[in-house]
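The freezer alarm interrupted the setup, so I double-checked each line after restarting. Inputs confirmed:
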Amino acid sequence: MTFLSRTQVIMAIGAVLLVLYVLDLVRRRKLSEEYSLLWVICTVLVATLGFSTPLLTWITRALGMMGASSTVFAFGIGFSLAMLLHLSVKLSRLGQDNHALTRELALLRSELEDLRRGGGPAGAPAERG
Amino acid sequence: MSAPRVLVIIPALNEQESLPATLAELHALAPQMDALVVDDGSRDATARVARERGAPVLRHAVNLGVGGALQSGFRWAVEHGYDVGVQLDADGQHDPAFLGALVEPLAAGRCDVSIGSRYLRRTGYRAPVARRLGMVLFSHLVSAVLRRRITDTTSGFRAYSRAVMEVCQQDFPRDFPDAPLLITLGRRGFRFEEVPVEMRERRAGRSFYTLGRSLYYPYKCLLASLMALLKRPAQL
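Predicted 3D structure, all chains:
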């Protein structure tokens, strides 16, 4: 490897800090392992691109990009988009679960109240006033 | 089917003002039908008001929307052995006098969902222009998809058979109990029939549909309708 440029040094520090922070989040149980793995892999991937000048120039040429930095940015943005989409999917799933749980809870609650009242199944027409 | 057991499901969000009159009217005009109030996360005394009048209440801890309320009501109806579930608005827009007519096609076995339509016959109901435009659009869309003319896709005044209520536990367009629900059910081969009804002004309280939502709604509903068409049917 040749001398690292100033940009590469900054990137290296950034990448190391990000990985450390992600691991710390897992340690403090703020982030599940599943996500931490994604973040660490992607950070390493983008950092590798930044460091390995031959690899970067090869990919840049293969994709027909104007400059090497565009390639790094493109990968970074691609990763961000993928992560956002993944989060939206997770969020939809959470919403569905929440929806189902809320309905289940309402039914259980009404059943419990019926039992406490000592009545039979509430399908029997409730006395109305 | 002779004299089906009918449950009138009343989704209610902050309806303590109008609920008593709705329940009283229901009891007076359709005493043979039971009522269930689904309190969809109200912050007022909706649940207490309903219980005081002897109606069983399902209470959502958070607001899920009309669709969620309907789904809970369906489940309760199925678990308690009802043959037919009718959706009735808490605010008095739906007149219980039409309940008999609404249930009749189901009782006769002619359809699985009967829809109380404001447009089948000329009635007094007048909607704002923009809203009427949307209604016409959805009416055409749903009619084309179902190959059957549906004049009032946004009507919430509907009766559902037990089979439909069971399917809705697994396959239900969340947040969209109107046009997308009809498409979802139509794709499963359920039959529809429309019954002419008249609707009234709401008694009190606020409508589910605010200004912001009335702009967002057509977009969301159109998208959900298309999705209802394209989605893989949920495994039952």
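Quick read of the result. Chain B is about 40% helix and 15% strand.
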